[in-house]
Specification:
By secondary structure, this protein is an alpha/beta fold. Helix content is 32%, strand content 16%. It has 2 domains: 251 residues, Type I PLP-dependent aspartate aminotransferase-like (Major domain) (Aspartate Aminotransferase, domain 2, 3-Layer(aba) Sandwich), CATH 3.40.640; 100 residues, Aspartate Aminotransferase, domain 1. It has 9 helices and 14 strands. It is globular, with a radius of gyration of 21 Å. It binds pyridoxal-5'-phosphate. The site of pyridoxal-5'-phosphate has 12 residues, from α3.
């Protein structure tokens, strides 16, 4: 069965073989040796040996895939990216606060998501904007050398891939090289596992699972151990990274089914050749789509080429009155969920790990055919 290609920004398309495996295991989960246990994953105690093995395998596979060093904890939490916008300052903003004073935090605002993160953090700390690309409508990347970093800041927050505006850091900023020893916090929700991460530059990384890791409901947090233990007293216990880490993400019931699904994705990623192979494929997919946009007379993308996202490709039709016809034709051609985010308009094609090259090729072919009908 060839399903339609689904370009949703999230929750997003999943590899068909992963969904088929989950379907096969839905009623009666088999362990690694194929022995069925009489229960589906949703029905298992999170403390039983069956789920423990699922959890441990998922964590080990993720650590291997993303090459996460041992001095970082991997936490499986809930609440999504937006909850992390509060949970991060609740845990880290006091890292360098002086007695009785609010912590100071720096934000680099490069699009809709980092903007939201900045707004939420202001409830808990003094949140500065160290740099922003707002003047050009979030289509560029402010050079790290120009950021106005605060030496007293507890951390610097960036969104490494702006899902809505389609702006991506192609390399992580090296704060040490800029003379700063402040921890870097990255929201890598929409490009996690699409490319390698240089952990020597990162203090904490978080990602909602529903773009590249699995279903909604699971939030991945990777945090350097020395950043634990500084939570504000008002931080909810279930959101205190130290508490979560001390209990192997089982302080309260974790999102067991979502962890299981993410675990299947991690095994699928390993079968694909790991992150390096995915990165190569993602580069080729993005290149094909951006080339088609740049070479056309109908479509255009406004993001500066050096910071264009490989995962989320917003584009516009020069004749906006054709938007509805474009989307209707796409749907008829089995190309789904291409409508742009409401704050930006136009179209957006999200081409995460699970989108095959064939899906991008089908989209490009449709775009060319549609353009011809407009002549
Ligand atoms: C999707 C997304 C989020 C929001 O995640 P929720 O799970 O909806 O809270 C946060 N940051 C980025 C970059 C995202 O793409």
């Amino acid at each position: 069965m060839q399903r339609p290609f689904n370009f949703s920004a999230g929750p997003a398309t999943m590899p068909q073989e992963v969904l088929a495996q989950a379907a096969d295991e839905m009623l009666d989960w088999p362990d690694a040796s194929g022995r069925r246990c009489g229960m589906g994953v949703m029905e298992m105690s999170h403390r039983g040996k069956e789920f423990q093995s699922i959890y441990e395998q998922a964590e080990a596979d993720l650590r291997e895939l993303l090459v996460v060093p041992q001095h970082f904890k991997i936490l499986f939490m809930q609440g999504g990216g937006l909850a992390e916008n509060a949970i991060v300052p609740l845990n880290l903003s006091a890292l360098r606060a002086t007695d009785g004073n609010q912590g100071v935090v720096d934000f680099v605002v490069t699009g809709g998501w980092s903007e939201k993160s900045h707004k939420e953090a202001r409830r808990y700390c003094q949140a500065n904007v160290a740099a922003t690309n707002a003047a050009d409508g979030h289509t560029s990347m402010p050079d790290a050398a120009t950021w106005k970093l605060n030496a007293q800041a507890s951390y610097v927050h960036i969104c490494t891939n702006e899902t809505i505006h389609g702006v991506e850091f192609q390399t992580l900023p090296d704060l040490k090289a800029l003379g700063s020893d402040v921890a870097l916090v990255i929201d890598f929700s929409s490009h996690v596992a699409s490319r390698a991460v240089d952990w020597s530059r990162v203090g904490l990384a978080f990602a909602g699972a529903q773009k590249n890791l699995g279903p909604a409901g699971l939030t991945l947090v990777v945090v350097r151990e020395d950043l634990l233990g500084h939570a504000l007293s008002i931080c909810p216990s279930a959101f205190n990274y130290q508490t979560v880490a001390d209990n192997q993400s089982m302080f309260n019931t974790p999102p067991t089914y979502a962890i299981y699904m993410a675990g299947l994705i991690f095994q699928w990623l390993k079968r694909q050749g790991g992150i390096a192979a995915m990165e190569e494929r993602n580069q080729a997919k993005a290149k094909m789509l951006y080339n088609a946009i740049d070479q056309s007379g109908l479509y255009y993308n406004t993001v500066q080429p050096h910071c264009r996202s490989r995962m989320n490709v917003p584009f516009f039709l020069r004749d906006e009155s054709r938007n509805e016809a474009f989307l209707a034709g796409a749907k008829a051609a089995n190309l789904l969920q291409l409508k742009g985010h409401k704050s930006v308009g136009g179209m957006r094609a999200s081409i995460y790990n699970a989108m095959p090259m064939a899906g991008v090729a089908a989209l490009v072919e449709y775009m060319r055919a549609f353009e011809k009908t407009q002549a």
